[in-house]
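Deliverable D5.2: sample structural annotation.
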Amino acid sequence: MVPAVCKLGVGAMSNRGSDKAELSIPRALNLDSKADDPVDKAGHAILGLLHQAANTAESTKQQAIETAQKLSAQLRAAEDRIRELETKVRYYEDRNDRAERWLHQISMEIEQRFFGQSDGRRSQQQAASRNQMR
């Protein structure tokens, strides 16, 4: 014959709105409970450990969520900074290209005005200087 207590069992309930997991123990289970009974002591000890484990798991979960949120914010800030730096790189590359074009134009003007190179010789030097820049 199976005792009535075993048929009732222990049902686990999760209350997601609270910070702690709770276990529901049917009242009939405690009616025949004896403080000296090793089975009851073991059952209560196991439930205590289960509560501790649930609390620890909840705490760990909360820490993980906070860490993930912090890292996510840091990642967004880093991505924003990367975009900002990429924009600056494009700006300075453009300035560099313009400066090189100006230096080339100035160099050509100096050669033409002060050294009086002929158009044929100048076009050869221009072609050579363009090849060097590439």
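Annotation notes: Residues 4-133 form one domain. Strands lie at 11-13, 22-24.
The annotation will be released with the project's public dataset once the embargo ends.
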